[in-house]
C-alpha cells in the first residue's frame, strides 16, 4: 500500500476521494500549526477537475460529494479555529517556533484591521496560509462570534465551492486537462495571493520609515 502524503493534494484525492477533501480542508481552515502547510487551493481545484468526465474516461469523483465535503470542512474548520483562538490562541501563536506562522499571523491581523471583519474574513479565505491563521487570530482579537460566524460561512462557501466548480468547468471543457493541471494550480495560487499585496506594501513602507 502506497503511503499518503497529506501535503500532496493528488495523493490525498487518490487515497480518500471526497472524504479526504473534508478532512484536509477542515484542518487547513483552522487547526493553526498543524493545518498551516496542508493543501487548500491545490486540493479543491484538482478535485473539481476529477469530477468532470470525458469521452474517454468517466468522472473519478462525484461532484455533489466533493462540494458537500468541501463546504462542511471549510465552515466547520473555520469555526473550530475561531474557538481555539478565543481560548488561548494568542498564547499558542506566541509560543510557536515557526517564523512563517508568526509572520502570517501578523498579516492576518493587518488584513482584519485594513478591510474590517466581514471583508477580511471573505478575502482571507482565498489567501493560502493566511486563511489557516485568520480564524484563530479573529478569535484571539475578540471578533464578535455572530459577526465571525456569518462572514466565515460566506467566505468558506464562496472559496470552497468556486474552486471546485472552476476545476469542474475546466475539466469538462478542456481535453486532456490533466496535462496542464500543475501550471493551472500555480496560477490559482498566484491569483489568490493578490489580496495580500496592499498589506505587504504597507509593511515595506513601515520598515523603510523606521
From TrEMBL:
Domain VTT: 38-168
Family: Belongs to the DedA family.
Organism: Streptomyces cyaneochromogenes
UniProt keyword annotations, A-Z: Cell membrane, Membrane, Transmembrane, Transmembrane helix
Pfam families, A to Z: VTT_dom
Membrane topology: Multi-pass membrane protein
InterPro entries from the UniProt entry: DedA-like (IPR032818), VTT_dom (IPR032816)
Compartment list: Cell membrane
Protein name per UniProt: DedA family protein
Domain of life: Bacteria
Principal subcellular localisation of the protein: membrane
Positions of transmembrane segments: 12-38, 62-85, 153-174, 180-200
GO cellular component entries: plasma membrane
